[in-house]
Amino acid sequence: MAEIKSLKSTGVQDECGILGIAAKCEQEIAHDVYFGLFALQHRGQESAGIALSKGDSSVAYYKNMGLVSEVFDQEKLSIFPYAKTAVGHVRYANKGSNNVVNAQPVVFFGRYGRVALSFSGALINAQQLKDEMLKNGHIFQSSVDSEVLASYVNYCANDDAVSGAINAAKKLVGAFAFVYMVGETLIAVRDGYGIKPLIMGERDGDIIFASESCALEALSAKIVRDVLPGEVVVVDKDRNISSYFFTKGCKKPCIFEHVYTARADSKMDGVSVYESRRQAGRKLAELYNVEADIVAGVPDSALAAAKGYSEVSGLPFTDALIKNRYIGRTFIQPSQAMRENSVKIKLSAFAHNIKGKRLVLIDDSIVRGTTSKKIITLLRQAGATEVHMMIASPMVINPCHFGVDMDTKEQLIANGRTEEEIRQIIGADSLHYLPVESLCEACGGKEYCTGCFDGDYSFDISGYYPEN
Predict the structure, then answer these.
(1) 37 contact partners, CB below 8 Å, separation of at least 6
(2) Is residue 259, in this structure, part of any structural domain at all?
(3) Rg of the chain's alpha carbons, rounded to an integer?
(4) In a 10 Å sphere around its CB, with 0-12 CB exposed, 13-18 middle and 19+ buried, how is residue 97 labelled?
(5) Is residue 151 predicted with pLDDT exceeding 80?
(6) Is residue 11 part of a domain?
(7) Is the pLDDT of residue 171 over 60?
(8) 27 vs 37: CA distance, rounded Å
(9) In the predicted model, is pLDDT for residue 231 greater than 70?
């Protein structure tokens, strides 16, 4: 069986997964956060952290570099006291160096007691807010947006912590979802366009917020609803729920959640991720008729699309690649070269399944192109006579400014290149992309942020990024 080191880590990564629990009574809440974060591990692998409060102005917390299972074991979890309120976080280091100083939750003494905050997203005006606070005597310990946000929420507070969250959210520019714990009160906030996902669940009176519904499922919680764009949901110490809006929401969430970031068993704003990927594959088959023998998907995010393609095309679905899930890890490095040298996730080819066959290979996206080129080489070495590449999303031609790791146009293989030029670079026999209109239809026909594909971001970013 031929092997290759997959460069999936050089593709796209979402910045973080968040979780917040407001329990009805004191319990081993750290264990619940652990299992919830475990379900969100795909959203960040650099660090993990848990913070909990008993409402006595003290916060117990621990965070460190590594996977959830590496940071927390039974001994560490048993040290946490019983409590009613907690937040958790898994992080991918899109901004800020990947060291423990930048790990979350951010914990600090605020105007209204001991506070912990977990944040996902990217603040376009973070430096502006930071400069404003520095002029007023604030100091910072890290290089991440989350500390700026935590400080700004405290800075904007008037009568209570809730006012701080609402007033701060009005000034934030970018994509964000965060959970904010002060005493036994838990506050959940989603940006005005709903770019970053945030969902609310309930379990026997416990209220849970998470980046994805799969975390609710892991905790045996039922979905209540998505937090709405521009909404601040407050669960007070008596577990009363109130809702405020800091802006009139205009939903335009990130479509890359459906393409790549989210786990397949999650729902995003009521749309099944698995079904949207399956429909994307079906649309690819309707658009592009290729003479081939079998169809396969790059694990894991393209498997549903490959099955959809098989359903329409009639080509047998097969396993061409397998991911080794038991490889030891090293921390993903911030530079492209270091990432390529430190990759530990391996893909292997099923030579028996593909030898002598013309293969249609479905992938979720092509960002930098390195992964696709290496995978195609691997499949040819394993005996595939032809490899026809189908991409279940459009060409990525613009950077993402909202927390997905596509920082500059220079990193993108599709920047300034045609489909044919990309085909030649990656070595495929043919290459086809799904049009943006078809992708949106596959994702429920709703309006999405598709800026990385066509420049249609959730809001006008020209004042912040003139080149776009």
Answers:
(1) 17, 19, 48, 50, 68, 88, 89, 90, 215
(2) no
(3) 22
(4) exposed
(5) yes
(6) no
(7) yes
(8) 17
(9) yes
Instruction: Mark whether 92 and 209 lie in a shared domain.
Output: yes
3-state class of 436 per DSSP? helix
- For residue 73, what are the contacts with CB-CB under 8 A and spacing of at least 6? none
Find out whether 6 and 349 touch, Cβ atoms under 8 Å: no
Same domain, 54 and 180: yes
Distance CA 295, CA 389 (A): 10
Considering the domain architecture, whether residues 289 and 177 belong to the same structural domain is answered as: no
pLDDT tier, 10 (very low <50, low <70, confident <90, very high otherwise): very low
Query: How large is the average pLDDT for residues 246-263?
Result: 94
Residue 433: domain span: 272-454
- In one-letter notation, the amino acid at residue 420 is E
Task: Tell me if 462 is assigned to some domain.
Answer: no
328: pLDDT confidence band, cut at 50, 70 and 90? Answer: very low
| Number of folded domains that form the chain | 2
What band does 323 get if pLDDT is binned at 50, 70 and 90?
A: confident
Catalytic, 16? Answer yes
Same structural domain, 170 and 287 = no
Which helix or strand (DSSP H or E) is residue 426 part of?
helix 419-426
Of 468, 458, 455, 382, nearest in space to 122 by CA: 458
Distance CA(211)–CA(465), nearest Å, equals 27
Buried b (16+ CB within 10 A) or exposed e, 322-337: eeeeeeeeebbbeeee
Using CB atoms within 10 A of its CB, is residue 102 exposed (0-12), middle (13-18) or buried (19+)?
A: buried
Are 305 and 229 found together in one domain? no
Indicate the pTM of the whole model.
0.90
Residue 318 has pLDDT above 60, yes or no: yes
Q: Are 15 and 120 in contact (CB under 8 A)?
A: yes
Q: Which of 16, 254, 400, 449 is catalytic?
A: 16
